[in-house]
Amino acid sequence: MARTVGGITLEVAVERWPIAGRFTIARGSRTEAVVVVVTLRSGDVIGRGECVPYARYGESVESVVAEIEAQRRRIEGAGAIEVRGATSPIDALRQSLPQAFPAGAARNALDCACWDLEAKLTGVPVYERAGVAPPAPVSTAYTLSLGTPDEMAAAAIVAQHRPVLKIKLGGEGDAARIRAVREAAPKATLIVDANESWRAHLLAQNLAACEAADVALIEQPLPAGEDAILDEVRSPIPLCADESVHDRGSLEYLAGRYQAINIKLDKTGGLTEALALAGEARGLGLTIMVGCMLGTSLAMAPALLLAADAAFVDLDGPLLLAKDRVPGLAFDGSTILPPDPRLWG
Are strands 142-144 and 312-313 parallel, antiparallel or unpaired? Predict the structure, then answer.
């Protein structure tokens, strides 16, 4: 049953979620995930969205909170926003967000909160409003943190029952890391993620190591901005842009250099742009990977709407945490089950 839209109240909270052990990539290590949660309230109905501020993109928890708070009057006065074709004040607010926020974490949390609130007010699930398939069980990659070859082999042995392993790499010594993981998990599909850590002189040896290990996908081998080096590279393995792609404006620069893109809602600025980016990328013949920052199930649930048409899914954030929010996503091994509507959507 549809419910009347009253005034919108904005709430912003910072939450800290311990990681199970330590999470290490080429840019450093951490032991907790710090997220910003936006709650939009209309009467007794709430919609929520979660984002993960990322220093690599010039964001901090403080800057993202400030960015949202600076628009509080606009958000809480959503009834005054006019957008042609909008079906409600919340829909108008969501469609107007790109004019108020750049693509990034702050817009993501607000965008997802708008989708969630609208769904809960109308009783129409987000997937139906967005015109996509309903979420179905999907298998996610499971991430192995960067470490020594022996450390990563030990982690791979523990996780070898998982169908897809994503290996975090760091530049020098990566060929040995790739070999060690493959020997420890001979049956797993492997994805490697360099997080911009390779340099031109490492490409040949690392690509050869990936080919020998039957790696399925290589994420962001070079620093964003140095992608033109790939014009001269003929990789037998698909290359996937991550840090080099944010929204649809990134695609023209990447054409011909990558065969896949990693879509993350914290980069696109939410589900709205992520869906548009996926559609345009598929039209260019690019393979879709759906990824995430390290957050809770609330951040993963919206991204599941992109998973049906993705060749690779990497939404393992909750599996890497010491605990998840309740209710959270249910996992059967590496299979993510459709979200409980109480969580999102």
Answer: unpaired
166 token code pair: 């994503």
CATH assignment of 8-130, among 3.40.190.10, 3.30.390.10, 3.40.50.2000, 3.40.50.720: 3.30.390.10
- 264 annotated active-site: yes
**Catalytically annotated residue among 168, 187, 267, 323:** 168
Q: Any idea which architecture 138-336 has in CATH?
A: Alpha-Beta Barrel (3.20)
Domain ranges of the chain: 8-130, 138-336
Order of strands across the sheet that contains 331-332: 138-139, 335-336, 331-332
Q: What is the pLDDT of residues 51-81, one digit of tens each?
A: 999 999 999 999 999 999 999 998 998 655 6
CA-to-CA distance for 221 and 147, rounded, in angstroms? 17
Per-residue pLDDT tens for 169-203? 999 999 999 999 999 999 999 999 999 999 999 99
Q: Is 187 a catalytic residue?
A: no
